[in-house]
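can u pls check wat happens w/ flavin mononucleotide
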Amino acid sequence: MMPYKDKHILGIVGSPRRGGNTETLVDTILASAVEQGATSEKVILNDLEIAPCQACNGCQRTGSCVQKDDMEKLLILMKKSDVWVLGTPIYWWGPTAQFKLFLDRWYGIDQRSFQGKEVIVAIPMGGGDEHYARHIIGMLRDICNYLGMKYVETIVAPGMNGRGSVRESSRTLELARAAGMRIMNTC
Ligand SMILES: Cc1cc2nc3c(=O)[nH]c(=O)nc-3n(C[C@H](O)[C@H](O)[C@H](O)COP(=O)(O)O)c2cc1C
């Protein structure tokens, strides 16, 4: 099947662990989409300087955040991308601090600018029950709904404790590859 259209796919990794399960899942989805004709980029949130929202409401008055940090460059990347692959491991039933801090900064965006973005979510966890991912999934579904984005699908990887655990799960990697392929064959 021919890809529906060229897409630029941005992977956003919320784990501080390089080469860990989140990054591996994100890489797998990106690689599969690239095989189908996509272009891709990846950012590691832990490597960026992103300050926490101060709730000053400066963004509501001026249209831009008072914080001058790496979020400015990241927003440019996000806006030019058609698809975002958002990855975070579960930390205490929620996303990592790096990921939540990044999300809070969406408060300062022009809320129309994310409309129509497609989102794939990758969530590894140490626990064995996929249900543990429900808070992250619910939060991201509600945000996508609110901002007019398309929440496409979630890859949940339970039982992933070691840094490279997910590389030993051919089933999970196959699910990630299939997600990368599917996103290139849907409008
Ligand atoms: C601070 C911290 C909190 C965690 N909390 C949970 C949790 O609530 N539930 C769970 O299933 N796993 C939890 N884990 C395990 C990670 O989700 C798991 O090891 C995951 O595969 C890490 O992904 P990474 O290799 O990309 O960092 C936690 C790990 C850390 C370091």
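The pocket of flavin mononucleotide is lined by residues 15, 17, 20-22, 89-93, 124-127, 132, 160-161, 163 (CB under 6 Å).
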